[in-house]
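Hi L.,

As promised, Cytochrome c oxidase:
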Amino acid sequence: MKSFNHGDFLKSPPSLFTKILAFALIAFAFFYLGEHWSDGYQQLVFFNTQQSDKTHSIAISPNANKVPSDPPAMSPSRPPNPPPVTSERFGIIDENGFMSVEFEVGSFDPELIEKLRNVNQSVEKEESGSSRAKIESFSLCSEDMRDYIPCLDNVEEISKLNSTEKGEKFERHCPRKDQSLDCLVPAPKDYRTPIPWPKSRDEVWFSNVPHSRLVEDKAGQNWILRDNDTFKFPGGGTQFIHGADQYLNQISQMVPDIALGNHTRVVLDVGCGVASFGAFLLSRNVTTLSIAPKDVHENQIQFALERGVPAMVAAFATRRLLYPSQAFDLMHCSRCRINWTRDDGILLLEVNRMLRAGGYFAWAAQPVYKHELPLQEQWKEMEDLTTRLCWELVKKEGYIAIWRKPSNNSCYTGRDAGTQPPLCDTNDDPDNVWYVGLKACISRLPENGYGANITTWPGRLHNHPDRLQSIQLDSQISRGDLFKAESGYWNDIIEGYIRIYHWEKLPLRNVMDMRAGFGGFAAALIDLGMDCWVMNVVPVSAPNTLPVIYDRGLIGVMHDWCEPFDTYPRTYDLLNACRLFSTEQKRCNISTIMLEMDRMLRPGGSAYIHDTITVMDEIQEVALAMGWHTTLRDTAEGPHAIWKLLIFSLMLDVTFVGYGKAVGDLARLLVWNVGVLQAASEGAEKIQLKMTETETPFRPRELLLEKQKLFQSIHKHTYLKGRYDKITSVIIPLGLTITCGAMIAQGIYNMSHGIGKKE
C-alpha cells in the first residue's frame, strides 16, 4: 500500500484542497452552532430533534418597546397583621334563617367514606396523568392497508350482517376498541407530491392512486384515461360523455332559476364517479359535495379527492346520511344506480329531507328518455312518488328531468287523507343524523320559514342565517354576537398564519376543520383568497351547527371523533383542530384521534392544534411516537396564556434540515458501536445519493421512527436520565462533524492513491 506523503498532499490541485478545507470549516461551524445555540434558540430546528418548553409568540406584545420603570423604593416595615376574628359559635341555619345549635347527625357508613376517598385519589391520579400509559412508538401498517378505511373495510362485522340487499355493507361498521387502528397507514411505494390545483382537476399521478380498474370498466365513457405516469380526466361522465361544461350549460338553460353560483351555491352529487360534475362546478362558484359508496368502483372517491374536489364516501342504504335538513340547493343523480322508489320511496324521502325548501333535484337516467316498457314503468313510479311528495316537475328535456321541492308545508297538509308517505311526527328532529335509521315519512318544513329564506352568494357567507336562532347553545351571549365574534376571531388568526407561516405559498387544497363551530375558519379562508375547500366537521359532542354552516354556503358533516372518519388515507393537506382535544379527552383516547389524523393527512401535510396547555404534553408525546415533526408556539395572548398552538408536519421529502437530522441519527453509533467512521461515511454516501436524485425514494417517516426508538433507548439508561436535551444538542452536531470528517478522510485517501486524478 502506498504511504501517504504530506508533500504530495500540498502539491494536489488547489480546487480539491479548497473543497477539503471547506468541509472542515463547515464541520466545526456546525458543531459550534449546535453546542452553543441549539438549547437556547428553538428556531434552529436543524439542531433540535425535540421542542423544548420554551416557545415564541406569534404576536408582538404592545409593551415590547416599553422600558420598565424603576422599582419602587422599599417601604418601611409594616406592623404585624391583627389576629383573625374568632368565630363566636358554629351551627346550622334553620328553615327560618336563624342559626341553631340543635341538630342531629344521621348515621353514616365508614366503609363508604373510605371508598369515596379511594375514588377521589384515583381520579386525581388520572387527571394528573400519572396513570396514563407511556406511548413508546407506533409501527407502520402492512402495505395492503394503504387504502384502509376502518369503518368501511371491517370485513369481520360485515360478514355478520343478516342481509345486505339494501346496501347495509356500504354503511359504517367500525371495529371494536380492541381492534381499532394502532399503526401508521403507509403511502404507496412511489408516492409523489400531488399535482397542485387547478392542474390536478385534469390529471393526477398514477403512483398516488395506483388502481387502473376504473379505466378498464369505464372505457369509452370519457371518465378517466391512463397516460404513462398520470391519470387524465377529460371531464365526461356516463350521461355527459361530451363533457361536464356542456352538461351544466344544458341544466342552466332548462331551468334558469337554478342560477349556478348565485341562488345555487351548495350541491350534492350522488353516485359521482370521479367527480367531474363537481370539479367543473367549482369554476362557477358552486361547492359540490360528491359522494359515492365504496363499491365495485371502490376508488372513485379516492380519485376525486386526489383531484382536489370535495368528496366523501357515503351511501343511500338504511341510515340517514350525515348531513342536516335543508342542506343542499341542488341535488344531482346521473346514472347513480339507486332505485329511488323502493320501499315506498324511502330513499327519495331522504333526498327530500336534505333538499332545501324550494331546491331542485336533477335526475339523468335511462327511464327519463328511453321507451322500453320496464323503463317506462320506472318513470311512472317516479312520477307518482314525486307527485305525492308535492314536487313540481319543472322541466323534462332529453335525458334530464328536474323537479322542485315546495317552499312550505301547505301542499303536504292539503293532500287527501291517507296519502302516503305521511308527514313525520312533530317531535321528529330532521337534523338528528348520527346512526339514525331512515324514516318513511316527509320531514316537515319549519313553519317560520327557517332554511328557505337564504340570500344569494356571496352575501349568505356573512349574513346571520335564520336557523342560527334554532341552535341549542349553553351561552348567555346572543347567538348573533357569537357568530360575529367567531368570524372576527378566525379572520385575525388566519391573517396571522398567512403573514407568519406563509400559507399563501403552501399547497393547501383539501382542508378539514375538525371542530367547525359556525364555519368561521372556512369563511375566513374564502375571505382571504385561499384557493381551497374545507370539510367542516361538527362533533356529536358539540351543538349541532351544521344547518348554519350549510346556510352560509359551506359544506360539512356530523362525526364522532372517538371513531374513524369515512374517507381514504391521504385525503387532506391541512387539519385544523381548535379546542378539540380538551373537549374530547374525557370521551375519546387522544392517540385514537391522532392516529386518524395521521391516516387522513397527505404526506407533506400539516395539522394546526389550538388547545389548552393541559393536553399538549400528551399530544406531543403521541406525535413523537408517530414520527411527526412538532413545533409548540404561543398564541397572540402571550407566553403565559393557557392556550398554545401546536403545529405538526407529516414530512414527505427531506429538505436541507432533513439532511442534518439524517446525519445526526447516525451519531447513535457513537454510543453503541466502535465503527463510527465507517458508518458515518456510508451514511454520507447515502445522503449524497439522495442529493443527486436517485430513483430510490427517501423515507423520512421510517427515519423519524428509527430516531424515536434511538432516543427511547437512551432514556432507559439511568446515567443519561434528565440529560436528553443536552444529548440531542451534542450528538446531532457531532454526527455532522463525524460525517464531514469521513468525507475529508475519504478525500485525503483518494488523493494519496491518485483516485480521481486527471491524466
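The first helix runs from residue 6 to 10.

Thanks again for sending the construct details.

K.
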